[in-house]
Amino acid sequence: MNTFGNIFRLTSFGESHGKAIGGVIDGFPAGIAIDMDFIQNELARRRPGQSAITTARKEADAVEFLSGIYEGVSTGCPIGFVVWNTNQHSNDYDNMKEVFRPSHSDYTYTQKYGIRDHRGGGRSSARETIARVVGGALAKLALRQLGIRITAFTSQVGPFKLDKDYTAYDLERIEDNPVRCPDQELAKEMADYIFKIKGEGNTIGGVVSCVVKGCPIGLGEPVFGKLHAALGQAMLSINAVKGFEYGRGFGDMEMKGSEQNDIFYNDNGHIRLRTNRSGGIQGGISNGEDIYFRVAFKPVATVLMEQPTVDINGNETILKARGRHDPCVLPRAVPIVEAMTAMTLLDFYLLNKTTHL
Amino acid sequence: MNTFGNIFRLTSFGESHGKAIGGVIDGFPAGIAIDMDFIQNELARRRPGQSAITTARKEADAVEFLSGIYEGVSTGCPIGFVVWNTNQHSNDYDNMKEVFRPSHSDYTYTQKYGIRDHRGGGRSSARETIARVVGGALAKLALRQLGIRITAFTSQVGPFKLDKDYTAYDLERIEDNPVRCPDQELAKEMADYIFKIKGEGNTIGGVVSCVVKGCPIGLGEPVFGKLHAALGQAMLSINAVKGFEYGRGFGDMEMKGSEQNDIFYNDNGHIRLRTNRSGGIQGGISNGEDIYFRVAFKPVATVLMEQPTVDINGNETILKARGRHDPCVLPRAVPIVEAMTAMTLLDFYLLNKTTHL
Amino acid sequence: MNTFGNIFRLTSFGESHGKAIGGVIDGFPAGIAIDMDFIQNELARRRPGQSAITTARKEADAVEFLSGIYEGVSTGCPIGFVVWNTNQHSNDYDNMKEVFRPSHSDYTYTQKYGIRDHRGGGRSSARETIARVVGGALAKLALRQLGIRITAFTSQVGPFKLDKDYTAYDLERIEDNPVRCPDQELAKEMADYIFKIKGEGNTIGGVVSCVVKGCPIGLGEPVFGKLHAALGQAMLSINAVKGFEYGRGFGDMEMKGSEQNDIFYNDNGHIRLRTNRSGGIQGGISNGEDIYFRVAFKPVATVLMEQPTVDINGNETILKARGRHDPCVLPRAVPIVEAMTAMTLLDFYLLNKTTHL
Amino acid sequence: MNTFGNIFRLTSFGESHGKAIGGVIDGFPAGIAIDMDFIQNELARRRPGQSAITTARKEADAVEFLSGIYEGVSTGCPIGFVVWNTNQHSNDYDNMKEVFRPSHSDYTYTQKYGIRDHRGGGRSSARETIARVVGGALAKLALRQLGIRITAFTSQVGPFKLDKDYTAYDLERIEDNPVRCPDQELAKEMADYIFKIKGEGNTIGGVVSCVVKGCPIGLGEPVFGKLHAALGQAMLSINAVKGFEYGRGFGDMEMKGSEQNDIFYNDNGHIRLRTNRSGGIQGGISNGEDIYFRVAFKPVATVLMEQPTVDINGNETILKARGRHDPCVLPRAVPIVEAMTAMTLLDFYLLNKTTHL
């Protein structure tokens, strides 16, 4: 259950304050040139300390590949990798060893496993997503050859949200601001808001949207492997995610069938759709239109305020978190959403090759 | 990819207008008494023709078990079953053989497989969910012994929605109206609305909510097998589902961390939570509180109106659907949501048994 | 665990004296013409009562496909099928309900599951292999298009064994005798021996050999998915199999490395091997030479003689088996070995398609 | 396909001359004390250079755990580990970069992947088994708590073989000689023979036998997950293995059913078997008796003699291997056979916990 995917498979390991985060990528196609700068840049997008609105932790997060790449090219053998943990302040967590932090996994891990590494959230730390970003970066290198492009962005932070459809924005410019929002004005408001929330020692959630362009027709495996079901699982496996919708999602309920349906037409010899309310997926299979979906992130559970809680013996106590934490995960979640999307699409692309003899 | 689950596994087969829908349930625990009446009743809840607001098709949907049960008790061997298709009007679909119905899977199946059984949607028909309801009914029989109770209900139809939290309603009474809504007054409005929509030859979507009570602590397998990620995939694999959220879901974005966190306290020696905004799952693992989530269904794609479309050669044409269709899938989706939930929970219950030696 | 394969997957169900044996084949490529006569003929090769040296049971073993085939062609959707049990004499087993038959699975099933269908061996009956033969027949239809040909044959029955390498025999003639041995003279001796053993109420084991011609280079997935490891598992999953060896197998121990190695040479521009001691597989991957392996079957456990045993309460008793049983499974095992080989090769052929983008 | 197991899962990575061999163990039970000395000792048993009859390479093979263990106890989270490659003489292989070594995987890897790391066999090197020994050592720590004991030993080297059943030997004494043979006299003959073969620059194969004591009744998952089928796959996935048999294996063919059957009796209230020809497994499920099986290893393909072969362009050439190689893998294969057995048994032990609710 620490493995993601069917053909392309990422198995990840590592705790926040252990020696390293790492993983094994199996099923990666042979013969793909591995662009190390690209991979490291993807990690930089996820890295803490990248701007004033993220946690102040500084981690190099340099990936070290141990196998599966020979002379800069993937060999088809499993790709092992590690990212060493170098900037852990485990002492920050000493006062939490026997205390259950509210809305964290401390209580459930302790109950399930009977033991837990309390330092920095242990296995349930968002630091685990490093392995996903490495896997996603490799997947992107393969998808790039297929012309599949994935762009995620922050579409809502607390009360601030994009008021138009993604087609209204220049998705090439999400890296122009630290929030990763394509509306540069709104991005500034979001950043100010996050900065203010941070000052309060509080946190805030939001929505990451994601758009896939250039996806070929035919990805998705009915009935339980519908493409959007796989994407949904992928997104819901990211820390702090509470919801997923694709196409018009929960908004579909306001429309009647006659209004919601996407109409086919003949576009100079090509079958196309006049609208894309389906979000690029019909019957669980990609139809060649843009795939788009939204992912809801709750506010970070660690607030720098006093909160009542209990310890492992059930005694009520007051917790005051220390440590360096994100007031809002959205900006750093963007590359993680992209990574999970990339791995899902590459996996389904490879699976689809087995549809015919 | 027609298999659902890890330990408890349902593999389903069958097309809408083929000989039968069926499946194999593997990994079902040995020694469970099989209550046939209960299973058949679950199928009756899913069956078409059960009320004036569903399709007029009449199908007995009687399940025939072929293996794995001996003298009324599960043997631990795979349980094969079939539900024969007896009331198919395949001719209703003759005019669709070479036409792509809007917002159906006709186009994507044809592109992916190069061949498709066009009758009644073939494999992509919601009739496939019969196998899920059988699997879910068996899972419920096992979960019942564990004290785990699952209740889904219609919480929204088009513009009509429940305005209170599920705790405000009597969930024992969802079967008291054909919409399966716990608010009897609202149910009547919903039914009237569906009836009106049906008269227009149109369709409408909505939301099914689901509540799990009595779930033990510890179900869920970090990091990719988080319980809510598995539930999300399960729900998104149901036909017409466009979104999934658990706990406060997309609503979490409006709250700050200090407001959203659930606070632990000592309830006469038991560790409990003062609120349940987390929806019964923390860190991907059940925490013993009620699990609740919401599932968005789009309006049924088949409307009894003329719609422009194209045929398999790309020629534009006008489609006028015939056949007997649901104006709103919500009432019949309720038992399907419950079934997928039951199978997911039983699977994770069994998985959790392997956490310790 | 009732599922075989990775991409091509057979999930089987059914007990000897239940309603039916059946299964679901998932991942079968779309667009393959389904030759029903061929499939039924494969079942006829496995069927009891086909000659004087097999059990006297007469079973039609007619397969009924329920899905996944439309107008004679596979659709890429799961193929459900059943073979009804029609000639069961369950009363033959009444005296065994509470008795553990020696060297059968009665004791272990009872211990593991706490319940068992005692009639005819229940799930552990060799009748379960019907589902494998159906799956194998479908796989053969696909492999035929790829030019891959599988031939198994009886190479040993008790003390009677082929004394030459498979290349010395005409493998086209294995169906010319009821033992399915390519040496027609030896076949007669084997048949006489089996007939004599049958007259004693006793049973005898032997070896089935299998040769695959036309297998493309590249099938096999290191390190745990080596082609011969998958074939070994497939064979060892057949009832009564006690051993598997490929290439020279256990015979390799007598040779030194310098004698055992296969030497490459240039055969008019093609790289070939002067010998094939490796059995067509090197490093777990097919090398384009003939694949060959041997499978050891123990004597059938059911002998028509008095045997001491115990009942479910531990009381010692004398068992005298009734019923209609094979004195030697080898002739009927030949198509089963072929079926498992076919499914394994098709699965690995499909897997291999994902090696490159 | 670089993952082994169902619940307990080892995913391995690494090439002989890459940075490291390593892996991730997922599904290891929580709460097991990790005895580092024991694990390191298991690696020492596999290590090259341990005696005069193994390769002269000296590798420390020190394992470094990166996750999943906290304060000396397993946490239930994935256990990542690496063993750094420190003593590689990659130059030894320079002359093999473009040459296919006979009976190695060079040719098939190149054909399948289009690229290969030629140094030391790359991924197909037996050095990969380091990851298996680490996984096996952890599994043994868990099995020890269950009273399950696994002992493998060399039972044949070339023409020298044990002439009695395993019960005739003291299995506690296999470590008393470098061949790991329980017959100390024969061990000396074997060692002399290997030393002589080594002097010739040649190699020799043999058989490793394995005995499991204390295995509880009920491990094994019919029909495709029979315990011996899983053990067979596990053994056949080890480099150089050509055959597997359990119980009397290929020897069963000489006996009639009445002679081969194991008879049950009542041993002071316990159901026992008078003989154990079945090898501890009936119907694919362990029956509580000793499990025993035999594994055939071919001679090492690398001989220090001139051999004709071809290069990647098909040109015929003469290869003279350099490097440090084993004349006989048997002594070092013993701990690998034990490791694969341990992982298989732990996996099936955990799976068996899901048989009942």
List the helices and strands and how they pair.
Four copies of one chain form a homotetramer.
Chain A: E1 3-4, E2 9-13, E3 20-26, H1 36-46, E4 63-65, E5 69-70, E6 73-74, E7 79-84, H2 106-113, H3 129-146, E8 149-157, E9 160-161, H4 184-199, E10 206-213, H5 227-236, E11 241-246, H6 257-260, E12 264-267, E13 270-273, E14 281-282, E15 285-286, E16 291-297, E17 306-310, E18 316-320, H7 330-352
Antiparallel strand pairs in A: 1-2, 2-3, 3-7, 4-7, 5-6, 8-9, 8-10, 10-16, 11-16, 12-13, 14-15, 17-18
Catalytic activity (chains A, B, C, D): 5-O-(1-carboxyvinyl)-3-phosphoshikimate = chorismate + phosphate
InterPro entries (chains A, B, C, D): Chorismate_synth, Chorismate_synth_AroC_sf, Chorismate_synthase_CS
Function (chains A, B, C, D): This reaction introduces a second double bond into the aromatic ring system.
